[in-house]
Specification:
The complex is a heterotrimer of chains A (333), B (331) and C (467).
Chain A: E1 4-16, H1 21-25, E2 31-43, E3 47-51, H2 58-65, E4 73-78, E5 81-82, H3 88-97, E6 98-101, H4 115-125, H5 132-145, H6 151-155, H7 164-176, E7 182-186, H8 194-211, E8 214-219, H9 222-228, E9 231-236, E10 239-244, H10 246-251, H11 256-264, H12 306-310, E11 317-320, E12 323-325
Chain B: E1 11-24, E2 27-40, E3 44-48, H1 55-62, E4 70-79, E5 82-83, H2 89-96, E6 101-104, H3 118-129, H4 134-147, H5 164-176, E7 182-186, H6 194-211, E8 214-219, H7 222-228, E9 231-236, E10 239-245, H8 246-250, H9 258-266, E11 315-318, E12 321-323, H10 326-330
Helix pairs in contact in B: 3-4, 4-5, 5-6
Chain C: H1 2-17, H2 21-38, H3 40-43, H4 49-52, H5 71-74, E1 83-85, E2 89-95, E3 98-109, E4 119-135, E5 141-151, E6 156-160, H6 161-164, H7 166-174, H8 179-184, H9 192-196, E7 213-223, E8 229-237, H10 254-290, H11 292-307, H12 310-320, H13 325-336, H14 341-352, H15 355-362, H16 367-403, H17 414-423, H18 432-460
Antiparallel strand pairs in C: 1-8, 2-3, 3-7, 4-5, 4-6, 4-7, 4-8
The chains are: A alpha/beta (333), B alpha/beta (331), C alpha+beta (467).
């Protein structure tokens, strides 16, 4: 068994853009480069956080890892096995090994299904359990794993009869029921009230420890990422710009983008009301259809110099230990 | 800074015993139940709470536009000392709404009509309310676009050509250009990215200074409120749990009400490594059948016998700091 | 548990449905039709309508082209009702080996317009001679036909006054009517029944006045052999009004016919609508779910079917194939399924993008499972509305085809009745009760389903989103 459960090398996902007639005639192809060369390793049993603003490609990355989207380029290795492009048969096995928790637990369940049916479905699909009774027992077990007690009571309910937190627990139970190795959690708490958000994260962490799971945690929220994850990767416009231990990345950010993100975060501390907050970033996120030359962050970077504009895009390099950054000038700033 | 003391006569808005109930077939849902507060000139009052606590309903009541079956069943809303509750809809539309008090609705930036340019939409809204020539209208629109940090370029654009931040700025400009003195903002930053969020917050602070506005800023996020609100009102189950200044709630002493305390603990801090985040077990009360006594008692960790029977009223524990809690009154 | 869900959702649905008045009216009419259908055996005066509709002998006792019975309420002159006189007074006299059986019927005539005929029905065996005597309330006695009967076991001998006693009636007439009037009519063209029930006076042929009172009809039957028997003698009086909806030119009871048509109309409507909507739903969802070039291809096929006009095709098909009701339904289904495809496809496209479909895909579910377990159950409720709206169309198409003479001649449908009315000259002869009831039934049934369909549409479509 390798140390890394998931290895992703130079992953790319380009969506072709619907072309106008002149584009077709001039044979001009254009793409939205949602994911444009992402490389990371997820260690066994860790929670890997993928952080970034909307449109940075974090959800697309998650969906590629879920095999809901086919990558345009790059390589994916799950548990030592190449899984970039796989047969339908291997995909069935893959679906048992890799599970997903969606952002909106309500939308991710068929509104006509009871919780019991929602949880039984993966078992039926993969023909697990001898009969209905055996499957129901597995459902009850999964529900108690996510602390929906008593499971019998929740099994009979419809998704709309649960609170947001309970729904997300049920959704988590569904992804756990096939004993996966790896779970992609796409913003699992962003739709949940603040007061119960911590409860869900706490539950997810407990389950992860108990069952020795590995999570890919996709979020835009640095604060929960810091609390929840073992590694943080910050994405900008389809690429990882900084990666490392959450404490290192948040307390000592090296990439100007990460710095801007951190400075923009609100904190419940007094004395900031009449101060205009300084966020060191310029302009707006460019379209992924039209990624700037050179360092892709340079048009918004307050530290950018000519070299950032003209030279090749910087690769991730080691700052120290596990802390990586993709900035040419990180030592100077 | 937050201690910029405000005096009684500077009140621009005063709410007394406001009640807004949704009269459903199963009974009255007391979404806003007997709340009183005031807004001083030039300050930002934050309203926080979980979803369904009545914060948006309060704003809707202040705009005098409850959606059926909602109905204002009691209380007063005094704007510049004049009660607007008894006014007719025509009077409200002509004199109050958008003229004296305006609102940035939650998700309003996604409600811009996709088939018209921004300019046409703004023009239409403006000339609906004010009789003015096209030139005057354009001049006014451009002035407010400048306030929100946009060039007049955007007037020719369609909503889908703009980013979320730009659309939110346009919505804010539209809430301002009839020159109201009170602006309600319902979750204006929720759907935006952190960086844009920070920019919008900066913009609101800037506008407050420049235009001498008073804001009511509604959000579920205590961290955001800490950045914008001079005073904070915490709502739970359609009632006010606590009102205090920024300093009182976020400072060393911290909030008094157990609900606010625990909500604050559940808010993650970026620069503090915590092993475990606190949370509040249970769920908000069903407002159709609210629990007896203090509505928070079944989730409270310091509940006493009295809390289950009597409902506490809001009491001033120190200047400008009001709490509705039996426990706080004891100590 | 499932049953409880169903009950819950039905009661919720009913609460919504109740608010749409037109839907309730539609439902009321539909329930009324259902009740008529269920109680058809009890309600139908002629129990063998379904099998013997085109068997003329079955309807022989009925009057021809008789008005509906309720016409009497609206007309000053009362038409004679149809009746059957049973249980006559019987007396028997023996003359050696011969027996003389006398059957006496009493008929109380209280109408203004005489019945169309008097028919004596005799069952028995062997040969017999019969004399028919007609005694009027004014004391006049008319000796009607005498005939030889040859009876067979199980058979019925019918002696019609209208056919067999013209001569005797003419002679009776001769005693009262003026010569001028007599000359205007030939012996064979008079209506005996009209004369027999008229006051004996001049002008009784041209402008008969009714002679109200008790009439006696006596049938004297002479049996010559001891083994010969008479078992049952009845006198049928075919009136001028008959049944709820009258009779047609072939003496058929139209009420029985219209009643028998309900089940076919419902069958044609429901079967065509259900089959074609189901096919349309499955086709539309598959097309939406597969997407890409498969979707485009399926849409082109759909457009081909959609653009073929149905009626000409139905006419050609009915002419080529045996015009059976099942063929008709099949052909209608083949062209009808396209009706719901467009809406269903658009709903499918929307549901396909829902997160729970992606979630199910992430769990490894097959396309089949996603389509049939997740997407179609969400669309089914909405398809009920289009089903209800399809039904009137199908019923009208069947009627049109039948009217053109290409329908299934073995069953009784409203279209068939209209067809017979058309060929039987109902319009020329003013037999409005042959045309209006079946036509009205088609319209009312169509309307009931249209009302239900609009109501369903109103309730279900604001919730086009899945929740």
């Amino acid at each position: 068994m390798s140390e890394n459960i998931f290895e992703v090398k130079n992953l790319q996902k380009w969506f072709p853009v619907r072309r106008s007639m002149t584009d077709v005639l001039k044979n001009r192809l254009s793409y939205v480069k949602a994911v444009d060369g992402v490389t990371f390793n997820i260690r066994r049993g860790e929670i890997f956080g993928l952080v970034g603003e909307s449109g940075c490609g974090k959800t697309t990355t998650g969906k590629i890892l879920m095999k809901l989207l086919e990558p345009t380029g790059g390589q994916m290795i799950l548990d030592g096995q190449e899984v970039t492009h796989i047969t339908a048969e291997r995909l069935r096995k893959y679906r048992r090994e890799v599970q997903m928790i969606f952002q909106d637990p309500y939308a991710s369940m068929n509104p006509r299904f009871r919780i019991r049916d929602v949880l039984e479905e993966p078992l039926l699909i993969h023909k697990v359990g001898e009969d209905h009774q055996a499957r129901l027992q597995m459902v009850a077990k999964a529900l108690s794993e996510v602390r929906l007690q008593p499971p019998e009571e929740f099994m009979e309910r419809f998704p709309h009869m649960l609170s947001g937190g309970q729904r997300q627990r049920a959704a988590t139970a569904r992804s756990l029921i096939l004993n996966p190795k790896f779970i992609v959690a796409d913003e699992p708490v962003s739709m949940i009230d603040l007061s119960t958000r911590a409860e869900i994260l706490h539950m997810m962490k407990l389950v992860q420890r108990e069952l020795q799971l590995t999570y890919l945690y996709i979020t835009h929220d640095l604060s929960t990422a810091r609390y929840f994850t073992d590694t943080i990767a910050v994405m900008y416009l389809g690429r990882i710009v900084e990666m490392g231990d959450p404490d290192d990345v948040i307390d000592h950010p090296r990439h100007p983008y990460t710095m801007a993100l951190i400075s923009a975060v609100c904190e419940p501390v007094s004395g900031k009301v009449n101060r205009i907050k300084d966020v060191p970033i310029k302009g707006e996120v460019p379209s992924a259809q039209n990624i700037p030359q050179g360092c892709r962050f340079h048009p918004r970077c307050v530290y950018a110099k000519d070299e950032c504009r003209n030279e090749k895009e910087p690769e991730l390099e080691i700052v120290e230990g596990r802390h990586l950054v993709a900035c040419r000038r990180y030592k100077e700033i | 800074m937050a201690a910029e003391k405000t005096t009684q006569n500077k009140r621009v808005l005063e709410v007394k015993n406001l009640k807004l109930h949704y009269l459903t077939s199963q009974g009255a849902v007391k979404a806003v139940d007997d709340i009183s507060f005031c807004l001083n000139k030039g300050e930002t009052l934050g309203i926080v709470g979980e979803s369904g606590c009545g914060k948006t309903t309060t704003a809707v009541a202040l705009m005098m536009m409850p959606s059926p079956p909602g109905k204002i069943v009691g209380g007063q809303i005094l704007i510049e000392g004049k009660d607007i509750v008894p006014l007719t809809e025509t009077q409200i539309r002509k004199q109050i709404r958008w003229e004296k008090i305006s609102m940035v609705f939650q998700g309003a930036m996604n409600c811009l009509t996709p088939v018209y340019t921004i300019g046409k939409q703004m023009m239409e809204t403006l000339r609906e309310h004010r009789e003015m020539s096209k030139e005057e209208a354009i001049a006014r629109i451009e002035k407010y676009l400048a306030y929100v940090g946009l060039s007049k370029e955007v007037l020719k654009r369609y909503p889908h050509e703009l980013s979320g931040g730009m659309k939110q700025r346009i919505v804010i400009a539209m809430a301002l250009f009839l020159e109201p003195k009170i602006v309600l903002c319902d979750e204006p930053t929720t759907a935006l990215d952190v960086v844009v969020q920070a920019q919008i917050i900066n913009l609101l602070k800037d506008l407050k200074q420049q235009l001498d506005l008073s804001f009511i800023f509604i959000t579920h996020d205590l961290a955001t409120e800490a950045e914008v609100s001079d005073r904070l009102m915490v709502m739970y189950g359609g009632k006010i749990a606590e009102i205090g200044t920024n300093e009182q709630l976020y400072g060393k002493q911290g909030p008094m009400h157990p609900y606010t305390q625990r909500l604050l603990k559940a808010t993650p801090l970026l620069h503090e490594k915590v092993e475990e985040l606190a949370f509040i077990p249970g769920r908000p009360p069903d407002l159709l059948k609210p629990p007896a006594g203090c509505k928070f008692h079944d989730r409270c960790n310091v509940v006493m016998d009295r809390c289950k029977v009597d409902e506490p009223d809001l009491q001033e524990v120190e200047p400008d700091h009001f709490v509705a809690c039996w426990r706080c009154r004891e100590s | 548990m499932k049953l409880k869900d169903l009950r819950g959702s039905i009661s919720e649905f009913w609460n919504e449905f109740r608010k749409v008045k037109s839907g309730l009216v539609g439902l009321g009419i539909f329930v009324f039709f259902l009740l008529l259908l269920i109680f058809e055996p009890v309600l139908a005066p002629f129990s063998e309508t379904n099998t013997r509709w085109r068997d003329i002998s079955y309807w022989d006792d009925n009057p021809q082209s008789a008005y509906p019975i309720w016409v009497n309420f609206f007309s000053a002159k009362k038409y004679a009702k149809s009746s059957v006189l049973k249980d006559p007074q019987v007396s028997e006299e023996a003359f050696g080996t011969n027996r003389m059986m006398t059957y006496t019927f009493e008929y109380d005539y209280q109408y203004d317009i005489a019945p169309s005929d008097l028919i004596l029905k005799i069952q028995g065996t062997g040969a017999a001679m019969m004399d028919l005597t007609f005694t009027r309330p004014d004391g006049e006695t008319v000796y009607l036909t005498s005939s030889n009967l040859k009876m067979v076991e199980g058979g019925v001998s019918r002696i019609s006054v209208d056919k067999g006693s013209k001569s005797e009636a003419y002679d009776f007439l001769g005693g009262f009517e003026s010569r001028d009037n007599m000359r205007k009519f030939q012996r064979s063209s008079i209506k005996p029944a009209a004369i027999l029930f008229a006051k004996a006076q001049e002008n009784m042929l041209i402008d008969p006045e009714p002679l109200k009172g008790k009439y006696t009809i006596q049938a004297a039957i002479l049996l010559q052999r001891p083994e010969d028997t008479i078992s049952n003698v009845e006198l049928v009086v075919p009136g001028r009004v008959f049944g709820l909806l009258g009779t047609d030119a072939f003496k058929r009871d139209l009420f029985s016919g219209v009643l028998a048509g309900i089940k076919w109309a419902l069958l044609i409507g429901l079967l065509t609508a259900i089959v074609s909507v189901m096919v349309g739903v499955i086709y539309g969802v598959i097309s939406a779910y597969l997407g890409g070039w498969k979707d485009s291809a399926m849409q082109r096929v759909f457009e081909v079917f959609n653009s073929i006009p149905l009626l000409p095709v139905l006419i050609v098909m009915s002419a080529v194939f045996k015009p059976s009701i099942w063929n008709l339904i099949l052909i209608m289904c083949i062209f009808y399924w396209t009706g719901s495809v467009k809406t269903v496809r658009s709903m499918g496209l929307q549901i396909k993008e829902e997160t729970f479909i992606e979630a199910t895909r992430a769990l490894g579910a097959s396309n089949f499972r996603i389509i049939f377990k997740h997407i179609i159950p969400l669309i089914i409720p909405y398809s009920f509305a289009s089903m209800a709206l399809f039904i009137p169309g199908a019923i009208v198409y069947e009627a049109s085809i039948s009217l053109l003479g290409l329908g299934d001649a073995t069953i009784v449908t409203w279209g068939q009745i209209l067809r017979d009315a058309y060929t039987g000259g109902a319009v020329i002869n003013g037999i409005w009760w042959w045309v209006i009831p079946p036509g009205l039934m088609i319209a009312i049934m169509g309307m009931s389903f249209a009302f239900i369909g609009f109501a369903l549409d109103k309730i279900l479509h604001p919730k086009l989103r899945t929740r």
